[in-house]
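Hi L.,

As promised, C4-dicarboxylate ABC transporter:
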Amino acid sequence: MIWLQFAILLAAILIGARMKGIGLGVMGMVALAIYLFVFRMRPGEPPIDVMLIILAVVSTAATMQAAGGMDYLVRVAEKILRSKPSMITLMGPLVTFFFTIFAGTAHITYSLLPIIAEVATQKRIRPERPLSISVVAAHLGITASPISAATAAMITILAGQVELMQILRVCIPACLVGILAGVAVVWKKGKDLEKDPVFLEKMKDPEFARELDVTTASDAKPLKPGAKTSVIIFGAAVLLIVLVGSFPGMVPRFEPGAASFAVNANGSIKMAAVIELVMLSAAALMLIFTKTATAEVAKASLFTAGAQAVVSIFGVVWMSSTFMLANTAAIEGALGDMVRAAPWTFAIALFVLSMLLFSQAATTKALMPLGVLLGIAPNNLVAMFPATNGDFVLPGYPTLLAAINFDRTGSTYIGKYLVNHSFMVPGLVAVSGAVAAGFLFAHLFW
């Protein structure tokens, strides 16, 4: 029976992934309905905390975007990227990584990818090199960000065992090691543009050759008056969250009792509640001090992307948690001995599931509780956290497609066999390198 139920889960994920957008969420609900009404399975817990964190963080980031803050950040990034054009293969991924850490979402990279492609092309560096590892680096930034939904899910699952700073202390340097390993493998990947027959053929077109070296500056349009103010407020909110995660004594502590939505059983305020409170308060301050209309926030692209993420995570994680709850004994019996003997093998399961879910937060919420149940040490679970970045394997994630479209030379591609694409090698190297480094740092810093 478990295999039939698992087949339904996989079918829902695969069909939902092909539908894109909210497809994962609605197909997850279809599978959940089958579990409930056909198999009479007890429903698991929906990921309310993760959904609310996504709403809070995305709403605040969208407010910053509506106030012009994202435009300001893009200009800062552009100055950094254009300052050392010959080092774009290194600078590109580092910029996308740290910008994602700051914003808590990889969607910020849509504005950076065309700059990376343009700088590389004008320097006659094969754009595939910086673009491929920059996309992977942005995804890794999610598992190193203090305000991402994935990190908040980890804190919630490991409540009382792991604090925010412990995750950041391991994952930030580990992901950096993985990114540098990815940079190394793409540094000379593919033919140089001057020797690439596809590029040379395109250069025979005078119009293409002329447009190739035209610089498109992002500072043509003046910034909104509140752009810098919104970035300062957002940055202060991120800093406050890190401080609260590092020094829990900064927030009130209440009498121990039954756990509630915002308070743990020991009387401490849950980190998820802190993130939601601080982020939405920051959004309110932005609206007040930058005089941004709330209607503009709802129209922001980040807000739309966040709404889709909430629906997707709602359906697919609720479906997955129901499957896990009903089959806990069978899964523990099949995987328990292997995972206890070699904890790193659990990273493979995280990676494979993230390939299908296209979400670090959904993967974390769906599978990390199983790691706790199997008795994997908290430090090892944190070390394996970067393994949730398998969303590059199947080239359907928006950032991958955007990178391909921004490369006018055609060097960034999806191969004939779907998985032989530009992002596969740097992605596998970067994620595996990050996990390996994660185990090292977890045992050094724990």
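The CA atoms of residues 216 and 288 lie 33 Å apart.

Thanks again for sending the construct details.

K.
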